[in-house]
Amino acid sequence: MRSLLFPLAVTLAVQVLVSMAVVTVPVLAPAVAAETGASASHVGIFIAMVYGASMAASLVSGPLVQRFGAIRLSQACLVACAVGLACVATGVPALFVVGALFLGMGYGPVTPASSHILAKSTPPEKMSFIFSLKQTGVPIGGALAGALVPALVLWGGWRVAALAVAGACLATFISAQPMREALDADRIPDRPLVFSSLAGPLRYTLGDPVLRRLAFCSFFFAALQLCLITFLVTYLTLNVGISLVAAGLMLAAAQAGGVIGRIGWGMIADRWGRPMYVLGLLAIAMGAAAVATGRFTPQWSVVSVALVCAAFGATAIGWNGVYLAQVARLAPPGKAGDATGGALVFTYGGVLFGPPAFTFLIEGGVSYAWAFVVLAAPAVACGLWLFGRKTSAVRALDNTR
Fold first, then answer.
1. pLDDT class for 272, splitting at 50, 70, 90?
2. DSSP characters for 329-380?
3. Burial, 147: exposed, middle or buried (Cβ in 10 Å; 0-12, 13-18, 19+)?
C-alpha cells in the first residue's frame, strides 16, 4: 500500500497545482480587464495558446521522462507554471503571451509523467481506479482556483493572487523532491534528445490501431468537455435566465460530478473488467447529457438543471481516468509516458477545436441547443465505434485483472 500511496499522492498534488495555475488566469480575467482596459474575452485566446503549447509539450514528454525522470519533469512543470503566472502578474501584454506558453509547457507533460509513475506502481486490477483518482486533480485544481483566487484578489489584488498560486507551485516543487530518487531510478541519463526520438510518441500512437482509435475518440470527448466548461455559465445566464451566481453554482455542480465520476467510473471499469465498454457508455451518456442541457428553459427547476449539469460533468469530465489507464495498459513496459504523450496530442487537439467550433456555430445563427447536439454527435458515434470495433487484443486487455 505504501508503494502505491506515495506515488499517487505526489502525482495528484502536482496535477492539482498545475490545473489550478491554468484556471487561475480565466478567474483573474475580469479583474485584469478592469485594470488594463483589455477585453475579458481575450482570455479565450490565452487559453488557446496554453493548450497549443500543451500539445507540443506532451508530444516530447516521453523522451524527457526517460532521460530526466518523471518526478524531475513534474518539478520542471511546476516551475514553468510559476514562471507563467509571474509573467501574467507583470500586466505587460507581450509577457501574457510568454506566460501562456510557459503555462502550456507546464501543463502538457504532467499527465504523461504521472502515467509513467503510476503504470509502474499500480496493479493491473486497480489501474482504472488509481488513474481516475489521480485525474480528479484537474477538477479539484479548477475548484480551488474558483474558490481561493477571488478571495486573494479581494485581499491583495490580482497580481498578488497570481503570485500566490505561483508560490504554491514552487512549494509543491520542493515537497516532491524527497520522492525523486526512488521514483526516477529508471531514468536513462544518456538518452539522446534528437528530433526523431521526440517525434516517436506520435508515431507510436498512430502506428498502433487500438491506441489510434482511443486517441481519435478522445479528440471529440475533449471537445465536448471543454464546450461544457467554457459555455455553460454564458448559456445559462443569457438563454435560460439564471443569475450569474446560480450559473456559477451549476458549473460547480458539473465539476463536482466530474470528480465523483472520475473515481466512480474507474472503480466500475476495474470491477467490470471492460474499460473500453465503459468508455463507450460514457460517450453515449455525455451526448445525451449535452442534448438535455441544450433543452433547458426558464421553466426548468433549479434542482433539475443542477442534476443534468452534474450528469454532464460526471460523463464529459469523468472519462479521462479510464481512458488514460487504458492507454497505459496498451503501452509496452516502460513506455506509458510515450504512449500517453502521443495520445494526448489528439486530446489537446479536441480542446483547441471544440470551443472555437461552438463559437462559430453560435455566431452563424445556430441555437445553443443545436450547437450542443452538433458537438455531441461525433462523441456518441465514437462511443458506438468503441462498442463495434472490439479486437481480440482489446478483449484480452479488458479482461486483465
1. confident
2. HHSPTT-HHHHHHHHHHHHHHHHHHHHHHHHHHHHTT--HHHHHHHHHHHHH
3. exposed
What stretches of 78-184 adopt beta strand conformation (E)?
none
pLDDT digits (tens, 9 = 90+) for 292-308: 999 999 999 999 999 99
372 touches 227 (CB < 8 A): yes
Residue matched to cell numbers 438535455? 292
Q: Are 223 and 352 a contacting pair, CB within 8 Å?
A: no
For the cut 90, the answer to whether the pLDDT of residue 254 exceeds it is: no
Mark residue 140 as left, alpha or beta (left: phi above 0; alpha: psi -120 to 50; beta: remaining).
Answer: alpha
Q: With b meaning 16 or more CB within 10 Å and e meaning fewer, what string describes 199-223?
A: ebbbebbeebebbbbbbbbbbbbbb
Regarding pTM above 0.85, the answer is no
Q: From the DSSP assignment, how many helices (H) and strands (E) are in the chain?
A: 19, 0
The residue type of 266 is G
Closest CA to 65 of 170, 216, 180: 180
d(CA 361, CA 350): 16
Overall size of the chain counted in residues = 401
User: Which of 229, 58, 219, 258 shows the shortest CA–CA distance to 266?
Assistant: 258
- Per DSSP, which regions of 180-285 are E strands? none
CB 151 within 8 A of CB 165: no
345 CB-contact burial (10 Å; exposed 0-12 / middle 13-18 / buried 19+):
buried
Q: Which domains does the chain have, with CATH numbers?
A: 1-175 (1.20.1250.20), 199-401 (1.20.1250.20)
The CA distances from residue 260 to 20, 101, 234, 355, 369, in Å, are: 18, 31, 24, 24, 26
Q: Longest C-alpha distance within the chain, in Å? A: 64
Check: CB of residue 327 under 8 Å from CB of residue 350: no
**Per-residue pLDDT at 208 exceeds 90:** no
Q: b vs e for 296-319, b when ≥16 Cβ sit within 10 Å of the residue's Cβ?
A: beeeeeeeebbebbbbbbbbbbbb
**Grid cell locating 222:** 475533449
Please say whether the beta carbons of 110 and 14 come within 8 A: yes
Residue located via cell numbers 445553443: 368
